[in-house]
Specification:
Rossmann fold, seven-stranded mixed beta sheet, six-stranded parallel beta sheet, 17 strands, Dihydrodipicolinate Reductase, domain 2, 10 helices, 2 domains, single chain, alpha/beta
């Protein structure tokens, strides 16, 4: 499968490095408006570099693209790739606002495209097993969900200028909570702390509740305030409680602890560990699933409808914070 990567920031560069080694892919090119960044990645991986997606798509014969641009620049390359009939993997979130998301979803539908959206928790074996247990009724009916995703202040330094805490970080857990709770989401109440992120119109920390149509509830906690030197760079958890049991997932280090003269660390082994130059973890398995499903003509692991549902909850949280009141989750197609 001849594939290109559009956007060579942190995640896009990881896409490219993984796909360059994939036995079922030829990484043809990478693209970034920062052409020097694209050239650096291309030079390392032995592919071509482009400074704009229009030139890339016109010049190359492709089967697929992954799009890892900032969400404010995702619509145009996604529609252009869909118009050419390519298989598409979109990084999340899909847009800066729910209106932007709905515009992209409508455009994809108009082109007959069925892109995958890269919610990598689905490719984490712990979450995949939890989904199976919940689907088989192994914990009875879900009653409550607790999700925590705490990052360090590096999140503010790296991401706050172009994205926000809810859209970039907590959305993973929101989408997973929607997956394991069969009933649709109805109502959100959220409170935020705004300090270091005030110049960006965003939040340092958020605590939110979500009520589902069947009466089940979820509690979310997220922040970008931990010190950069803390042992575990990302501190996540996910607890699913049912009336017949529970599933509890903790941490991202997968149990490894390292003590050296430099200090004590718990390296992230769950999301995208780099070992011997190869990308591993949930990101690698998610990209692998995209390639396998695209080649086999199977539906994506996470599609537009699931992604849009998570974006609608993010939107409700932001409205609740702004109004200091509960907010109703907007159904599909509502602006």
């Amino acid at each position: 499968m001849r594939i290109a990567v559009i956007g060579t920031g942190l995640i896009g560069a990881l896409h490219a490095r993984f796909l360059a080694r994939h036995p079922a892919c030829t990484l043809v090119a990478v693209c970034d408006t920062d052409i020097e960044k694209a050239q650096q990645v291309a030079g390392e991986l032995g592919c071509r570099a482009y400074g704009d997606f229009e030139t890339l798509l016109a010049a190359e014969q492709l089967d697929a693209v992954t799009i890892a641009t900032p969400e404010s620049h995702r619509f145009e390359p996604a529609v252009a790739a869909a118009h050419r009939g390519l298989k598409i993997l979109l990084e999340k979130p899909l847009g800066r606002t729910l209106a932007d998301v709905d515009r992209l979803v409508a455009a994809m539908r108009a082109e007959g495209a069925d892109p995958a959206v890269n919610f990598i928790l689905h490719a984490d074996p712990r979450f995949a097993r939890m989904k199976e247990i919940a689907a088989m009724g192994g914990i009875g009916r879900p009653v409550s969900t607790f999700a925590r995703r705490r990052g360090t202040r590096l999140g503010i330094e790296k991401y706050a200028q172009w994205t926000d805490l809810l859209s970039s970080t907590l959305i993973h857990d929101i989408e997973m909570a929607l997956t394991v709770n069969a009933a649709p989401p109805e109502r959100v109440y959220a409170e935020a702390v705004v300090r270091a992120c005030a110049p960006y119109g965003s939040h340092d920390a958020v605590v939110a509740t979500l009520r589902f149509a069947d009466g089940a509830v979820a509690l979310f906690e997220t922040s970008w305030v931990l010190p950069p030197g803390q042992p575990e760079p990302l501190d996540p958890a996910f607890h699913l409680i049912g009336d017949g049991g529970s599933v509890v997932i903790e941490g991202s280090s997968m149990g490894i602890r390292v003590l050296s003269e430099q200090g004590y660390t718990q390296p992230d082994m769950a999301h995208w560990p780099i070992i011997d130059g190869s990308i591993g973890g949930a990101l690698a398995r998610s990209l692998d699933a995209f390639v396998d499903r695209a080649r086999a003509g199977l539906p994506p692991l996470v599609g537009l409808d699931q992604a849009r549902s998570a974006e609608a909850v993010v939107d409700a949280m932001k409205r609740s914070i702004a109004t200091q009141a509960p907010a109703t989750v907007r159904a599909g197609g509502s602006m």
